[in-house]
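Q&A FORM
Asked by: J.P.
Topic: structure of DUF11 domain-containing protein

PROVIDED:
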Amino acid sequence: MFPVNPNDWITYITTALPRNEHPCWVDIVGDLTRNAAFYYPAISPNPSEIAFRMRLNGDPIKVNPNSYELKEFVWGVQIVNNFNQLLFTIRVNASGSNYRLQVIKETAPSSITYDVPFSLNYPPLSSDIVRVVDAGKYFACGNPENLDEDYFLDFRVPNNSTVFPGFDFSSSTYKLCYFTSTQPNVVNKEYICGSLFNPPIGEPVLCVKKEIVSGPDSICLDDIDSWTLRITVENCGTVAVNNIILTDVLNNNINFLTPVTLVPSLGPSYDSNTRTITWNIGTLNPGEKQLLDISFTAQLAVCGHLILNTGNVKYQNGPDDGIPFQDEGVLSLAEDELQVTKEIIGPDPVENCEIETWTLRIKAENTNVCDITEVLIVDEINCNFNFETPIVYNASNGLVILHDKKIIWSLDLLYGNSFETLDLTFSGFFDNSGHQIFNKGKASAFCIEEFDFSDEGIEVIPSILPENIEVTGQIKECGTGQLLTGVLVTVYDSSCKEILSQSFDENYTLYLKPGTYTIKFTKAGYYTKFLNVIINSDGDIVHDIHMNKKVLCYSQGSSNTNLDILAGIVKYKIDADIIFSNAVCLYTDAVIECLTDVIDSVKCKVICNSKLLVTLLMEKDIIYKLNEEKNFKYFTDEIKLCYPLEINIVNTDFKYDVNIADVSFCKDGNIVENMALIKFKAHFVDNQDICINTK
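REPLIED BY: S.T.
REPLY: Here is the structure written out as tokens.
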């Protein structure tokens, strides 16, 4: 069991330098007042259960508000004898989806003697076999000015001959080495060992360890950095140890950029050809120790977990092979070996506004044999896409955070030659046509600079409208409302090309394909009337035409002396009603509170004295309520109109007026059909002034 009183934990390792292991939650830390590693209860007499505690320089819990789980790493304790032979490994294995507390017998034949799944609870329960406890703000992660929370990781295992065959905590000779790692089968992060339990009486005993006291624990391949390694040789027995000779060999995959320096410089020797350090230490009395520091600046030539150097210590009456030792190693990470792809599973093509369901599969693949750490993928759904349902995700590994249209997927570790997937499933629609990419994202990792990725996209085609839309209405005289007969109706396309001419009595009816048209109404004795229809929806258009009768406005040759207002001669007049019929998509559950059409800008241009081109930039503003929240959305459209000019308008001034007279709409499902009536009046005015009778 874990101790009820935290003060009952027994300190085993006092200090552990904050090496700022990357990341911080695999950095074991401690000092004289806040110790690094503990065990409980006292190992003599043999307890039925033994617990371990380590202080971590960071939170080992995933940053996920929906779960309370460990990050995907491995923490544990190794039991090592006085010859540095590994006997047992106790590991908190969170490297996969099923978390397990395990004990592995490491001596031949090796076997797993304890293998129990676990889950974390917050707050912890008395039945927990693994727990995380806040340890206060004492050690800084990265920035020494910024103290952050430290945490204890506690775990406990049974103590019996089944779990630890041939071993006795109270009488065997051993030491405990607390470790952290990114992998279950390799210790590649922290590795700190304590003093020897039960040293043999009357026999020579040496305790040998090597540690990296400065330098990075993770480095990008071919980057340059400096390291200092320390070998400690201590007489941890009760009698003197004689004829001690240390041999250490530096890894051939280290490319040295400076000479290897040794402290002390007298005594140890270094052979640069064989990369071998030799030191005849001689004799150490009980409790005496010797330290050897090895420093260099270098590049690492291969990726992977690289032990910087290995060696052994031989001594009189010691084992023939000596006592082996090595450092905890450095993680060398390759660059540009992360590939991120995205697959679309769902319909292609689709119509604009059509509600469908898709699954986007993001695949993060490590194409190198070496691991990649701290993978971060940030993806954002196309702003032209509208969700009808929330995103449902399924990640093979890692942490996923959703915020509006942004998806953040982080992987603490991506093993060599492996991949992970994230499936995003949702329903919705595009409110814009053309080739639409669902989302563009950015990916990065430790040693890998940020790069872009995206899906291939799908084709979104305009909504399919009926072949012909009916445009109809009455033809009346303005003022009297009298129905007119013998009215010539001429239809032009958007470039002023005539496509139809027909005479109508009292009523007109046209069947037009979706598009933009100019319809001219002419009758002797009446001013020409124009009707523009912009057909972008499937609703029929009903609009009455009102034509003005011609009257004599001025007499250029009059001798009347009561003429006192100057005005121009109107050479040509355009009187047009513009019907803008279109459809936009909005969420099915949205309730429209206000819809307004606005004319943002007007551009007019005369072409070859025969056509007037008018371009209207329209904005549709919609205020709607969705999920009890008020929202705003706008759409823009460019309307291009063409009016045929029947007279020469050279040397004339152009004046116009345009305004929106009426707006109407209806909503069906996620489709909003909208019709706006726009009044457009334009005059080509002769530069010659005339007088108007004011009486």
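FOLLOW-UP: Residues 199-333 form a domain with the Immunoglobulin-like fold (CATH 2.60.40.1170).
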